[in-house]
Amino acid sequence: MAKKTKINKENLVALYMDTVLDHNEVPKSVYSFAKMNHFEESEFYRFFGSFDALEAAIYELFFEKTMKTLEKSKEYKDYDAMNQLLSFYFTFFGNLTANRSYFSKSLEIEMGGLNQMKKLKTLRKKFLNFIDELDLGVIDIKNKRLDDIKDSVVNESYWIQMLVTLKFWLDDDSADFEKTDLFIEKSIAASFELANTKPLKSVVDFGKFLFKEKISMR
Fold first, then answer.
1. Does residue 119 contact residue 26 with C-beta atoms inside 8 Å?
2. Which of 133, 41, 52 is nearest to 85 (CA)?
3. What is this structure's pTM?
4. Cα–Cα distance, 95 to 70 (Å, whole number)
5. From the CB of residue 93, how many other CB atoms can be counted at a distance below 10 Å?
6. 53-77 pLDDT per residue, tens
């Protein structure tokens, strides 16, 4: 008889990621997942109510791992908002790349439905809280109601930028994902210039980059 696996939140996540990769699909049921990994089904429900909840937790864990790495950096605390956001992106996507096989499988969906994925809802909340804490330096409208609307629109635009970057990363086949690094640099520079209504050099530069990539991927 196989030895029972000792279960906690972290190794449950690891077992799930390995199972998805080994079988190239989500387990058919919690029962089958527990059986193939030698633990009681009831142990799963101590931590998660469903596979959707577990998958959302995976993205949350990788977000938290990214933030812990950044918080340990003395240099990060002295960066301006744009460089803090760049540091977040490079660290977060570095973590995803180290587990690309799983995340590629997890995010196998058309871009049109990416924003509706339940597994990304917790990540969205965490990411928008992070954006709120950054000193983005956008225009002060001097009207609370309009200012709240402006903040909501700005924050949502940064979430859309995250989704677009995820899609670009999934499609990127360049060595060491160099094109994704360029995409991050140019898109964030462009977004900050738009938010601060500065000259649009970076916006134009980013547009040229996207046009070139679209042509080369045909």
1. no
2. 133
3. 0.81
4. 12
5. 23
6. 999 999 999 999 999 999 999 999 9
